[in-house]
Amino acid sequence: MLKSLFAVALAAIVAAPLLAPPAEAHGPTRKKITETIEINAPPEKVWAAIGNFQDMSWHPAVVKQEGQNGNAIDATRRLTLPNDGTIDEVLYKYEPAKMSYSYRITAVDVKVLPVTNYSSTITVLPGPDGKTSTVEWRGAFYRGYPNNDPPAELNDDAAIAAVTAVYKSGLEALKKKIESGS
């Protein structure tokens, strides 16, 4: 009898996870954004405008920039925005032959950009004729509030909207700058 009670108890323990309702997910999930723009210029010209990690003068939201170590891995830069907010970034991949670099944010106030654990890659892709280019800006990040029930300004939608706006405004300004010859 003891063996049969043990068998029933063991069966219940084994079956319990199968009968339990699914657990709800907790916390945020990583979001990914990709924005692209076609530029009427050869890839080399576009790369010359954006290929220097230390120079984001092409982005309208950057009013000042300072950094160290050029395009070397672990180079750093600090971007200052019009409201005096700053974003600190580090370069972790630099591939000039592929016209691409990747970086991550190391420090930003979520009031400036409502994200955490942000990483990004900018790549210049040649058009089919070699006379045009596509710039692709990809990012992955978590919302600015890491726990459940974030306030509206730090939720997933706010993070996605903010990063999308940064990418679109930067890419549009880059296109205008290059195509106008300025």
Break the fold down into its secondary structure elements and pairings.
Elements lengths: L1 H18 L11 E9 L3 H8 L13 E5 L7 E5 L5 E10 L4 E9 L6 E12 L6 E11 L12 H25 L2
Structure write-up:
There is one protein chain. By secondary structure, this protein is α+β, with helices and mostly antiparallel strands. It contains three helices and seven strands; from the N terminus they run αβαββββββα. It has helices at 2-19, 43-50, 156-180, and strands at residues 31-39, 64-68, 76-80, 86-95, 100-108, 115-126, 133-143. A seven-stranded antiparallel sheet has the order 1-7-6-5-4-3-2. A hairpin with a 5-residue loop joins β3 and β4 (86-95). The longest helix is centred in the C-terminal third of the chain and has 25 residues, at 156-180. The chain is globular, with a radius of gyration of 23 Å. The N and C termini lie far apart (89 Å). Residues 5-12 have low confidence and may be disordered.
List keywords for this structure.
single chain, globular, 182 residues, alpha+beta, 7-stranded antiparallel sheet
